[in-house]
Amino acid sequence: MKKLLILSLLLAFVFPSEINAQRRKSKNKKETSTEKSKPKNKTKKYSDFVKKDTKSDEGLFKVHENEGEYFYEIPKSLFGKEMLLVSRIKELPSNFGGGYINAGSKTNEQVVVWEQFKKKILLKIKSYNAIANDSLPIYKSVKSNNLEPILYAFDIKTESKDSSAVLINVTKFFSSDVKAISGIGSRSRTQYKVKKLDSKRSFINTIKSYPKNIEVIQDFTFDASKPPSNRNAGTISIRMNQSMILLPEKPMTPRLFDKRVGYFTVGTVDYNSEKLKADSKRYISRWRLEPKDKEAYARGELVEPIKPIVYYLDPATPKKLRKYIKQGVDDWAGVFETAGFKNAIMAKMPPSKEEDPEFSMEDIRYSSIRYVASTTRNAVGPSVSDPRSGEIIESDIIWYHNHLRSYRNRYLLETGAANPSARTLDTPDEEIGEMMRMVIAHEIGHALGLPHNMAASYAYPTESLRDGDFTQKNGIAATIMDYARYNYVAQPEDKNIRFIRQLGPYDHYSINWGYRIIPTATTPKDEVKTLDKWIDEKAGDPIYKFGYQRRGGFDPASQTEGIGNDLIKASSYGIKNLKIVAKNLPEWTSDQTNDYADLNELYGELLSVWNRYINHVVGNIGGVFEDNKKPNQQGNVYSVLAKSKQKESLNWLLKNTFTTPNWLLDKNILANINHTGYVERIGRLQNRHLSSLLSESRLQRMTNSEVTSDDFYAAADMVKDLRKGVFSEANSTKNVTVYRRNLQKNFIDRLGLLLNSKSAKNSDISSISRGELTSLKYLTNNASKRAVNSITKYHYKDCIAKIDAILNPKK
User: Fold this and answer.
1) Do 646 and 622 form a contact (C-beta atoms < 8 A)?
2) 3-state SS of 281-296?
3) Residue 751: which of 791, 714, 799 has the closest Cα?
């Protein structure tokens, strides 16, 4: 027994590893057998994605849908083809963007290409900031220094049956927060404290494919701490429309921009030039209008374009307004005849569901005029352009519902003195319609490529605006593209006056310059000689001058909202009329409605109108005319407004602005609209113009005028004249009113800012400020000793203290 036990232990000691090895071998064999039994991963076939129950849509790409998953079938022939990807808001929450972003607003526009890289498809953003012919050596450098960003990378799922196309899944791309197409920019994300996209509440609504474009509608929901509406929900939901359109294989022949004729532009840096630097080229934005009959067009006959410009009216537009909107579009048809095209532009109602079940206002193939339910008072005319050539692909005019109220109010305020039909809150439908027609015409002008031309309102003599025959024929400005909305110059005794703007001769001139085909030219450079000739033929005629819209502009002839070529006379007529309106404002508003709301609103806008009239005259001080020319034209580009006119303007301002406008302080109005704030309200307006006159830019411009002109108004003389006018009471025993006391303190404060300005400390501005403050200290010190009331004495003492604090600051 003992021997058997020893033998058993010995065997266990000798063979354990072998036993374990056998077990491992058995286990490995079993695992190997299991692995072999697994099916191999096979490459998925086309039929695995495109099945019998798959919903497919033919178009630019075939689009397939399987239970909420979307696939693009991209033809390999379209790899590298340029497409325009336009992101627009289809629906949005109320008050998003403060009311200036709406359904139809464009949020991004970019050229993209689809490219294959190994087993992936790349969606790349293509830039036209710099270009060069691929045949030139510098092309490689341009490419290397302008690397195109990859917007997204997709896995290739499979190929089509004939291998001519690849299939990719675009579901994640269109349901994720891709910043370039999300519709919520960085500013909005900060403003509304957007945290993240909620993927469970974000999805693709539809994808539709058309012959040359694909339209995607997405629903995005973001978590946000401060949404613009429905605050308790903590959510922003926005519906986006992504339009991707195939750009023309051959871009439209571009037309080189000339700053003597106003057009929106696209630009690039061209490295093809053999000059010592790259050329910065700009092309005008315009629609592709090509004559059906080229020979007839070349003979000077009117010819229809191959593809006219068509705008579709929003079905949401009130029926009574549709005819005016249509007229605003159709008015441009006559203008295009000047460029040789008939029936070039028109407005239509959209087709019904029965006529075209796939028609959509968001489809980038169609241009539209949208009627937006919004309290915003505005209208805009954006467009989408091919960056390669400036060709306008599509545009959407946007009209905000409450905009007509602005026009009604200004019609009453600016023309009511001379125009009986404007003296009501219920403006006649035909006149409201005419205003709307002209606003639409203005926005269509933008959509045709035309920017504001602020020089056009300066083209007509001011007195001619009181002539009925002249205004009926010529309107009140040389173009619809100015901000000359109403004739505020005409007086009550004038007859047969046109009060509302209209298209003018500059519109015909600019459309002809931008759109007329030059049959003999084959390149943009070939056109320049003819284009220059057209400009030379009109040179020197103010009707055909283009003037830029600039914030705080320096050209007296290019001011927003002004009319007539004598701004002092025009503003004098305007204020004369405004005094009549102010006196009658309660009768025309609250007396009719038994409510003070309209009186309050219109009084506030009346102050704004007065403010604009003042601002036009302020623009004369330090004014420099800009007349863009080429070197072969006579005269200088910049010329200073005559000293006598500038001094006349300052004297006018001292009388009409800085002398208290008591006619604006009607107790019958003020006592019924607010319990306080009248002094501050007038003071703010006066101080705005005072600050403008004493701005660094204006004073620097006046100082520089001493170099270029013999007939200049010196900055030191202007500030001295202004000081004498503002402090005129200091040379007498007159008491100073509360309005003038505030004005005088603001004058001192403004000089203090100029004296302490880092950018002006080593210029004449610093010297002028110190000199005037020193003179004021002496003047107010003497004035404080005269027999005046207590508050005037306190005021002068305060002025002295303020001046001392500026001239001798405590260290």
Assistant:
1) yes
2) EEEECECCCCECCHHH
3) 799
Closest C-alpha among 60, 57, 55 to residue 83: 60
* 270: confidence class by pLDDT, cuts 50, 70, 90: low
493: Cβ–Cβ under 8 A, 6 or more apart, which residues? none
Per the listing, tokens 């029965």 go with 354
Cβ burial, residue 244 (10 Å; 0-12/13-18/19+): buried
Lookup: tokens for 513 = 């310059």
Checking if the pLDDT of 81 tops 80, the result is: yes
Q: Strand 62-66 vs strand 55-57: parallel, antiparallel, or unpaired?
A: antiparallel
Q: Which two tokens stand for residue 360?
A: 């959509």
C-alpha angle 493/497/502, rounded to 5°? Answer: 155
Q: Which position has the token pair 């972003």?
A: 101
Closest by CA position to 447, among listed 506, 531, 370, 528: 370
What are 328-342's pLDDT values in tens digits? Answer: 999 999 999 999 999
Which residue(s) pair with 399 in the sheet? Answer: 371, 379
Q: Which amino acid is at 130?
A: A
Dihedral class, residue 780 (left if φ above 0, else alpha if ψ from -120 to 50, else beta)? alpha
Element of type H or E holding 116: strand 106-117
Three-class HEC string of 517-559? CCCCCCCHHHHHHHHHHHHHHHCCCHHHCCCCCCCCCCCCCCC
Nearest-angstrom CA–CA distance, 252 and 517: 12
Distance from C-alpha of 169 to C-alpha of 173, rounded to nearest angstrom: 8
Write the DSSP string, 48-76: GTS-TT-EEE-SSSEEEEETTEEEEEEEG
The SS3 of residue 135 is: coil
| Per-residue confidence (pLDDT) for residue 230, from 0 to 100 | 79
Q: Which two tokens stand for residue 252?
A: 């439209």
467-483: average pLDDT: 97
pTM of the model: 0.86
**Neighbour order of strands in the sheet with 130-131:** 130-131, 265-270, 279-284
Residue with tokens 């539709």: 208
Q: Band of the pLDDT at 482, cuts 50, 70, 90?
A: very high
pLDDT at residue 376, as a whole number: 67
The backbone region for 301, taken as left when phi is positive above 0, alpha when psi lies in -120 to 50, beta otherwise, is beta
- Residue among 385, 374, 429, 381 at smallest CA distance from 407: 429
Q: How far apart are CA 682 and CA 300, in angstroms?
A: 59
Q: What is the mean pLDDT of residues 768-795?
A: 93
Q: SS in 3 state form for 288-341? A: CCCECCHHHHHCCCCECECCCEEEEECCCCCHHHHHHHHHHHHHHHHHHHHCCE
Express each pLDDT in 573-584 by its tens digit: 999 999 999 999
Q: Are strands 69-75 and 83-91 parallel, antiparallel or unpaired?
A: unpaired
Cα–Cα distance, 748 to 460 (Å, whole number): 39
